[in-house]
Structures are given as structure tokens and as C-alpha cells.
Design brief:
The chain is α/β, with parallel strands linked by helices. The protein has 2 domains: about 210 residues, Medium-chain alcohol dehydrogenases, catalytic domain (Quinone Oxidoreductase, Chain A, domain 1), CATH 3.90.180.10; about 130 residues, NAD(P)-binding Rossmann-like Domain (Rossmann fold). Helix content is about 25%, strand content about 25%. It contains 11 helices and 17 strands. The strands form 4 sheets. Strands 3, 4, 5, 8, 9, 16 and 17 form a 7-stranded mixed beta sheet that branches. Strands 12-11-10-13-14-15 form a 6-stranded parallel beta sheet, with helices on one face. Helix 4 packs across helix 5. The mean pLDDT is about 95. Bound molecules: NADP nicotinamide-adenine-dinucleotide phosphate and zinc ion. Zinc ion binds next to loops.
Length: about 350
């Protein structure tokens, strides 16, 4: 067993406390990653607070992992010691079902194994990236291109792929009018990526407080959803709306902003059900869809796209003692635009 330093919550309210967790000894296809940085995703908060269902404690969250390979199993072919790598929201899947064969492991018909809070094929409870080391089978590890800094690369493993995948799936390209709802971790990546894909990008944020940032990130237009005029002015104007909001919003009001055959894709994952007025769908043959992270092949494609287009998240690096404070700021929509934990500050507990 390999001992790893970690920060865990021991109940839904927290706070984080230092702890030591065990990682398995390397199987032939495993790599040992020394984690350098871990991003803070709103999903960490939903999960740890039990909003998505019961969880076991202690829980070490973190599925935006960037680090260095320090050991490889006897049959590993993809990586060698010293490689810069990332691990995202899943660490395994069955590898045999139709969806895994398509490279859509996130939709594995037998259920993918989450990076934390899941039971893996060894019967072990998985623990995430707010820790010093992780052992992962090589197929679920991706390569971080040399020109991406490790700290800024970390959030790409979830916020990056979760927005890249639906933008690609629904054809973000020149001539497409795309709205991004919520300018947080996912939202700011959606803006950067959609802009790089050539689309005309509009941010729909609660207020105009972050307008200057939004335009700098690549948005062409910026509106406040607290202003009822926004919904009148933008009615019927988007091909695609990417909803990244972590709370319940009035979906029907946003659907009315779609043009003929437009799609609103929900990546935000609030626990409460959302209600839809079907007349806002049938009117313009609109669709309401969902999307969950992305497959491993597409995650690598996204990293390479970011490297090629010089795209990186805007991050605020924090120490391990600041996680509780950072979570409160995420909950208050006070994040510009992703917190990333510097794992070297975790101490010797
Ligand atoms: P985040 O950084 O907190 O961003 C969410 C943004 O939503 C906030 O910055 C805020 O933007 C807006 N917002 C928050 N509360 C709101 C409210 N009550 N009404 C209207 N707008 C509100 O969170 P994140 O890490 O980007 O994650 C966003 C959501 O995506 C979470 O639910 C997360 O669990 C989910 N997620 C899903 C996947 C997937 O695979 N589908 C992957 C990762 C995360 P403004 O201040 O601009 O209004
Ligand atoms: Zn996430």
C-alpha cells in the first residue's frame, strides 16, 4: 500500500481535516501520479454535502488532477516516469460495453468508476485529488501538453471537458450563436472554448458585475438575467445554450431564447428537479438536453485543442488550508474562475 497525504471532510458540513489515505500497490497497467495541483469543482461540494445522495465519510474530493508520473506498472505502455499527466472525473469503466467501445466511457453501460466516492473493481472506496498521490489504470490517464502549465491545466480535466464535449457535439463553429449561462468555473471555460471554435458567444450572468471579464474571456455580448428586458431582447436568438448553473433556474424562460431547432444543454447539476413548460419546447421545435463530462479520447483532444489555441482557465491558486474558504466563495458565486489547490502546501500529516 502507498500512503498519501490528503484533505478530507468527515461529515456533510466539513470542515476539511488532514488525513492519510491508502492507495493500492501498482497493478500491471497502473500508474502512480504525484499530484501537484487539484481544481475545486462545484460537484465536489454537491457530493460532499450529500446533495446528490448519501456518501461515505471521510471523503477526499477532487477530480481535476494534474501531476507527474512517478512509477509505472510492469505492463504500462502509454506513460513513463516523469510524464506530465491529468486525471479527471473517472478512473475506470467496464471497457466492454457499446459505449466504452465508442470512447464514451463516461456513459459506460455498467457504470463508470468515479474518481471519488465510488467503489472500484477492487472493492475499494475511491478517494480523489485533494491528496498527494493517486494510482490509476493508464487508460484513464491523459497527457498534459508541454505548453500548458500544470496548475492551469488541472481544471481542464473537468470544467474543460464538460464544456468542450457539448460544444463539439452540438457543432460550435463560425456562424453559430451560443449563449453560456453562469460565468463560473465551467461557464468561463465554455466562453473561451466556444470563442476559439469561432462561435458568436453571449454570456448570461445574474448581474453585469463580471461583464469586463466576460468580454476579455472571449464573449461578444454580455447580459444580466436579473433584468427582464434581457429575455425580451434575446428571444429566439441562439442556436445553442449551455447552462452551467449549479442551482435551479427557470428553464422555460431560457428555452424561449432558442431559435428554430435550437438546443439548450444542461451541464449544471442541481439536486432539485427542473420543470419545463412544454410550450417553450414545441414552439420552435427546440430541444432540452444534458451532457456529462466527456470520454478519455475526447479529453485528450480537448487538452491538445487548448494547447494549440493557448487556452487555459483563469485560476486562483490556494493552499490546502484555504479549501473551506474557497468552497464558501464558490457557493457565493465569488470565484474567478477556478480555485486550484497547490498540493505541495498539504504538510506532513
Ligand atoms: P461554479 O463555479 O459555482 O459556477 C456556477 C455559476 O452559476 C456561478 O458562477 C453563477 O454564475 C451561476 N449561479 C450560481 N447560483 C445561481 C443561481 N441561484 N441562479 C443563477 N445563476 C447562478 O460551478 P461549476 O464548478 O462551474 O459547476 C457548475 C455546475 O455544473 C454544478 O452544478 C456542477 O455540479 C455541474 N457539473 C456538471 C458536470 C457534468 O458532467 N455535467 C461536470 C462538472 C460540473 P453568475 O455569477 O455568472 O451568474
Ligand atoms: Zn467537476
Amino acid at each position: 500500500m502507498i500512503n498519501a497525504k490528503a484533505r478530507a471532510v468527515f461529515n456533510p458540513e466539513g470542515p476539511f481535516k488532514p488525513t492519510t489515505i491508502e492507495r493500492r500497490d501498482l497493478e500491471p497497467h497502473d500508474v502512480l501520479v504525484e499530484i501537484k495541483y487539484a481544481g475545486i469543482c462545484h460537484s465536489d461540494i454537491h457530493t460532499a454535502r450529500g446533495e446528490w445522495g448519501p456518501v461515505n465519510y471521510p471523503l477526499v474530493p477532487g477530480h481535476e488532477i494534474a501531476g507527474i508520473v512517478t512509477q509505472v506498472g510492469s505492463e504500462v505502455t502509454k506513460f513513463t516516469v516523469g510524464d506530465r499527466v491529468g486525471v479527471g472525473c473517472m478512473v475506470d469503466s467496464c471497457g466492454e460495453c457499446a459505449h466504452c467501445h465508442k470512447g464514451e466511457e463516461q456513459y459506460c453501460l455498467n457504470g463508470m468508476t468515479g474518481t471519488y466516492g465510488a467503489i472500484d473493481k477492487y472493492g475499494q472506496y475511491t478517494q480523489g485529488g485533494y491528496s498527494s498521490h493517486i494510482v490509476v489504470t493508464e487508460g484513464f490517464v491523459v497527457r498534459i501538453p508541454d505548453n500548458l502549465e500544470l496548475d492551469a491545466a488541472a481544471p481542464l480535466l473537468c470544467a474543460g471537458i464538460t464544456t468542450y464535449s457539448p460544444l463539439r457535439h452540438w457543432g460550435a463553429a463560425p456562424g453559430k450563436r451560443i449563449a453560456v449561462v453562469g460565468l463560473g468555473g465551467l461557464g468561463h471555460m465554455a466562453v473561451k472554448l466556444a470563442h476559439a471554435m469561432g462561435a458568436e458567444v453571449t454570456v448570461l450572468s445574474q448581474t453585469l458585475k463580471k461583464k469586463e471579464d466576460g468580454l476579455r474571456l472571449g464573449a461578444d455580448h454580455y447580459y444580466a438575467t436579473s433584468d427582464p428586458e434581457t429575455f425580451k431582447e434575446l428571444a429566439g436568438s441562439f442556436d445553442l445554450i449551455v447552462n452551467t448553473v449549479s442551482a435551479k433556474i427557470d428553464i422555460s424562460a431560457y428555452l424561449s431564447l432558442l431559435t428554430l431547432d435550437g438546443t439548450m444543454v444542461n451541464v449544471g447539476a442541481p439536486a432539485e428537479p427542473l420543470s419545463v413548460n412544454v410550450f417553450s419546447l414545441i414552439g420552435h421545435r427546440r430541444s432540452f438536453a444534458g451532457s456529462m463530462i466527456g470520454g478519455i479520447r475526447e479529453t485528450q483532444e480537448m487538452l491538445d485543442f487548448c494547447a494549440e489555441h493557448h487556452i487555459a482557465p483563469d485560476i486562483e491558486v490556494i493552499s490546502a488550508d484555504q479549501i473551506d474558504e474557497a468552497w464558501e466563495r464558490v457557493l457565493a458565486s465569488d470565484v474567478r474562475y477556478r480555485f486550484v489547490i497547490d498540493i505541495s502546501t498539504m504538510g506532513n500529516e
